[in-house]
Amino acid sequence: MSNQTNNLPSSPAADAERVRTHAVAAGRWFSGYLAALGVASAILIVLSNSVFPEGFPRSLSTGAWAVFVVALASWWAKRHAVYPAGATRSLYLATAVWFLLYLLLVGPLVRWQFDTALLPWTLAALLLSAPFFIAAAWIRARR
Amino acid sequence: MSHPRHTLDPVIHLPIRFSIMAALNAVERAEFGFIRDTVEISDSLLSQHITTLEQAGYVQVSKHQAGRHTKTWLSLTPEGRAAFRRHVAVLNQIAASATAPA
């Protein structure tokens, strides 16, 4: 889709290219949101599986994460007027991959091998957040 | 009727609408005010063009409550994206034939 108006010689085409570039640039904030989501999700994994592996503090950290995610989404969205192409799809896809990997593969594996050890859970959490960082890089790289 | 200009989309061909479509084609959705400022037109003129594009099935308008204000979001429909792509392809075809050596 990008640069598809580039070959057109006339002034309307130049203006269309200008507004297109401006619109793409205005949507770059979303990559920061995805990266923040990745960091928050990694913190949640470490807190709920290693630092507070059971009881009320575990529920509290999950609740705090949910509040943070929703608050960040509404606060950030209020301040921006553009959602970049593929924003919703990349967010849903990254969240689904993160959740399913944690639920079905990485979570059970790390728990089985390392129980609540901090370092393995930190590395696993960073690995699990990779979909958010990849999505953020993909959004940022779009022209 | 073989010249490619006959296949240009009359709804999109107007320069202002072409710019609106170009801006919306680059994003998932954009706020009304952003498009107004980017295309550099007034509220009322943008409303008129958006109504035309909406009636053609190219643009979707949705309103969301943001605190005490209502935000109006604009996005292209799949038909709108396809129509814009077709229109640009035809323009490029005309430009290519105009600049090709005789």
Describe what this molecule looks like in 3D.
The complex is a heterodimer of chains A (143) and B (102). With 143 residues, chain A is mostly helical. Helices cover 79% and strands 2% of the residues of chain A. Chain A contains 6 helices and 1 strand. The longest helix of chain A is centred in the last third of the chain and has 28 residues. Chain A is elongated and about 65 Å long. Chain B is α+β, with helices and mostly antiparallel strands and 102 residues long. Chain B has a single domain, classed as Arc Repressor Mutant, subunit A. Chain B is 57% helix and 21% strand. The longest helix of chain B is centred in the C-terminal third of the chain and has 22 residues. The mean pLDDT of chain B is 91. At the A-B interface, α1 and β1 of A face α2, β1, α3 and α5 of B.
Number of helices of chain B: 5
CATH superfamily of chain B: Winged helix-like DNA-binding domain superfamily/Winged helix DNA-binding domain
Oligomer: heterodimer
CATH architecture of chain B: Orthogonal Bundle
General form of chain B: elongated
Order of helices and strands of chain B: HHEHHEEH
Q: Biggest interface: chains and residue counts?
A: A-B, 31 and 28 residues
Beta-strand residue fraction of chain A: under 5%
- How many strands, which pairing sense, and closed or not: the largest β-sheet of chain A? none
Radius of gyration of chain B (Å): 16 Å
Discrete helix count of chain A: 6
The CATH topology of chain B is: Arc Repressor Mutant, subunit A
Number of domains of chain B: 1
Determine the mean pLDDT of chain B: 91
